[in-house]
Amino acid sequence: MKYLLLAYTGQEGWDTVDVTSPEFLAACKFYEDLAAELTGTGELVSTEGLAHPALSRTVRKGPDGPVASEGPFAESKEVLASFAIVDCDSHDRAMSIASRISDAVGDTVEVRPIMEGPPEPS
User: Fold this and answer.
1) What integer pLDDT is reported at residue 92 of this predicted model?
2) Which of 36, 66, 87, 119 lies 20 to 30 Å from 42 when distance is taken between CA atoms?
3) Positive or negative CA dihedral for 38, 109, 96, 23?
4) What pLDDT is stored for residue 11 in this prediction?
5) How far apart are CA 96 and CA 43, in angstroms?
6) Band of the pLDDT at 72, cuts 50, 70, 90?
7) Percentage of residues in the chain with pLDDT exceeding 90?
8) Chain centroid to CA 19: how far?
9) Is the sign of the CA dihedral 114, 118, 120, 122 positive or negative?
10) Going by C-beta distance under 8 Å and a sequence separation of 6 or more, which residues neighbour residue 12?
Protein backbone atom coordinates (compact mmCIF):
# COMPACT_ATOMS: atom_id res chain seq x y z
CA MET A 1 0.00 0.00 0.00
CA LYS A 2 1.17 3.52 -0.72
CA TYR A 3 1.60 6.13 2.01
CA LEU A 4 2.20 9.86 1.86
CA LEU A 5 4.75 11.08 4.40
CA LEU A 6 4.41 14.80 5.06
CA ALA A 7 7.33 16.35 6.95
CA TYR A 8 6.66 19.58 8.83
CA THR A 9 9.30 21.84 10.33
CA GLY A 10 9.31 25.05 12.36
CA GLN A 11 8.52 28.11 10.27
CA GLU A 12 11.08 30.26 12.06
CA GLY A 13 13.93 28.08 10.81
CA TRP A 14 13.35 28.86 7.14
CA ASP A 15 14.78 32.36 7.39
CA THR A 16 17.67 31.57 9.72
CA VAL A 17 18.93 28.18 8.54
CA ASP A 18 22.67 27.95 7.97
CA VAL A 19 23.03 25.56 5.03
CA THR A 20 26.72 25.09 5.89
CA SER A 21 26.12 24.04 9.50
CA PRO A 22 26.99 20.49 10.55
CA GLU A 23 23.37 19.92 11.61
CA PHE A 24 21.97 20.92 8.22
CA LEU A 25 24.58 18.87 6.35
CA ALA A 26 23.84 15.85 8.57
CA ALA A 27 20.13 16.16 7.81
CA CYS A 28 20.86 16.28 4.07
CA LYS A 29 23.08 13.21 4.38
CA PHE A 30 20.38 11.37 6.32
CA TYR A 31 17.80 12.09 3.61
CA GLU A 32 20.23 11.04 0.85
CA ASP A 33 20.99 7.76 2.64
CA LEU A 34 17.32 7.07 3.37
CA ALA A 35 16.35 7.71 -0.26
CA ALA A 36 19.09 5.33 -1.42
CA GLU A 37 17.94 2.66 1.05
CA LEU A 38 14.26 2.95 0.10
CA THR A 39 15.12 2.99 -3.60
CA GLY A 40 17.10 -0.20 -3.05
CA THR A 41 14.18 -1.92 -1.33
CA GLY A 42 11.75 -0.68 -3.99
CA GLU A 43 9.71 1.25 -1.41
CA LEU A 44 10.45 4.81 -2.56
CA VAL A 45 7.98 6.10 -5.13
CA SER A 46 8.80 9.83 -4.98
CA THR A 47 10.23 12.45 -2.65
CA GLU A 48 10.80 16.20 -2.89
CA GLY A 49 11.76 19.08 -0.64
CA LEU A 50 9.60 22.17 -0.90
CA ALA A 51 10.52 25.82 -1.47
CA HIS A 52 10.21 28.56 1.15
CA PRO A 53 6.62 28.83 2.47
CA ALA A 54 6.51 32.52 1.50
CA LEU A 55 6.42 31.36 -2.12
CA SER A 56 3.25 29.28 -1.64
CA ARG A 57 -0.20 30.33 -2.77
CA THR A 58 -3.59 29.03 -1.64
CA VAL A 59 -6.74 28.85 -3.74
CA ARG A 60 -10.11 28.80 -1.98
CA LYS A 61 -13.66 28.74 -3.22
CA GLY A 62 -15.13 32.24 -3.04
CA PRO A 63 -18.67 33.51 -3.68
CA ASP A 64 -17.70 34.62 -7.20
CA GLY A 65 -15.33 31.77 -8.01
CA PRO A 66 -11.85 30.73 -6.91
CA VAL A 67 -9.83 33.24 -4.88
CA ALA A 68 -6.04 33.02 -4.60
CA SER A 69 -4.11 34.28 -1.60
CA GLU A 70 -0.45 34.37 -0.66
CA GLY A 71 1.03 31.91 1.79
CA PRO A 72 0.02 28.58 3.23
CA PHE A 73 -3.58 27.68 3.99
CA ALA A 74 -3.49 28.18 7.75
CA GLU A 75 -1.40 30.11 10.21
CA SER A 76 0.83 27.63 11.95
CA LYS A 77 4.12 27.36 13.77
CA GLU A 78 4.99 24.42 11.52
CA VAL A 79 5.09 24.41 7.73
CA LEU A 80 5.22 21.62 5.19
CA ALA A 81 8.88 21.15 4.27
CA SER A 82 8.91 17.97 2.19
CA PHE A 83 6.97 14.91 1.18
CA ALA A 84 7.62 11.34 0.21
CA ILE A 85 5.44 8.63 -1.23
CA VAL A 86 6.42 5.15 -0.14
CA ASP A 87 4.98 1.80 -1.16
CA CYS A 88 5.20 -0.44 1.91
CA ASP A 89 3.93 -3.82 2.98
CA SER A 90 2.26 -2.37 6.08
CA HIS A 91 1.22 0.72 7.99
CA ASP A 92 3.76 -0.27 10.64
CA ARG A 93 6.55 -0.08 8.06
CA ALA A 94 5.43 3.40 6.95
CA MET A 95 5.34 4.48 10.61
CA SER A 96 8.83 3.07 11.11
CA ILE A 97 10.19 5.13 8.22
CA ALA A 98 8.43 8.26 9.53
CA SER A 99 9.83 7.64 13.02
CA ARG A 100 13.35 7.45 11.63
CA ILE A 101 12.86 10.81 9.89
CA SER A 102 11.50 12.45 13.03
CA ASP A 103 14.28 11.01 15.17
CA ALA A 104 17.05 12.02 12.76
CA VAL A 105 16.02 15.55 11.83
CA GLY A 106 13.38 16.52 14.38
CA ASP A 107 10.55 17.05 11.89
CA THR A 108 6.95 16.18 12.63
CA VAL A 109 5.94 13.54 10.08
CA GLU A 110 2.33 12.85 9.17
CA VAL A 111 1.63 9.42 7.67
CA ARG A 112 -1.44 9.13 5.44
CA PRO A 113 -2.53 6.12 3.41
CA ILE A 114 -3.14 6.93 -0.23
CA MET A 115 -6.59 5.91 -1.39
CA GLU A 116 -6.68 3.14 -3.93
CA GLY A 117 -8.95 3.39 -6.95
CA PRO A 118 -12.40 1.86 -6.99
CA PRO A 119 -12.54 -1.91 -7.17
CA GLU A 120 -12.58 -3.46 -10.60
CA PRO A 121 -16.05 -4.58 -11.70
CA SER A 122 -16.49 -8.36 -11.62
Assistant:
1) 98
2) 119
3) positive
4) 83
5) 13
6) low
7) 66
8) 19
9) positive
10) 77
- This prediction has a pTM of 0.86
Please report, in angstroms and rounded to a whole number, the separation of the first and last CA atoms in the chain.
22
* Residue 31 vs residues 22, 38, 82, 91, 121: alpha-carbon distances, Å: 14, 10, 11, 21, 41
Report the amino acid identity of residue 22: P
Q: What is the DSSP string of the chain?
A: -EEEEEEEEETTHHHH--TTSHHHHHHHHHHHHHHHHHHHHT-EEEEEE---GGG-EEEEEETTEEEEEES-SS--SEEEEEEEEEE-S-HHHHHHHHHHHHHHH--EEEEEEPPPPPPPP-
17, 49, 59, 90, 101 from 20: Cα distances, Å = 9, 17, 35, 37, 20
Q: Which of 60, 40, 42 is nearest to 2 (CA)?
A: 42
- Give the integer Cα–Cα distance in Å for 24 and 29: 9
